[in-house]
Amino acid sequence: EVQLVESGGGLVQAGGSLRLSCAISGFTFDDYNIGWFRQAPGKEREGVSAISVSDGHPYYANSVKGRFTISSDNAKNTVYLQMNSLKPEDTAVYYCAGSRVDAGLLLGTYTYWGQGTQVSVSA
User: What pLDDT was estimated at residue 29?
Assistant: First the structure.
């Protein structure tokens, strides 16, 4: 059973930082991507960042480039999203997701999803 569990969300002031974690279990293939997606009320779910677990290649949405950093600790089966310089526009439920293919932030390729963690950024 594939399981993705997010943690690390919370409330932070604009300009602050949070670090999200995604604990991964149940994958049977070495090559897969872990992505972070977010959904704010009334908006479509959008890709934030992703990483190819096999080689560490990262992907970033333009809106977070230079502010967010994705990383993986393969020994811990954990992917992190370091979020710096947070803006109110970053407020959303953040989801960790898994894909069996390396297709960056192509939403349709992600078939495994965590429960989400709330990130709220106050102005």
Answer: 57
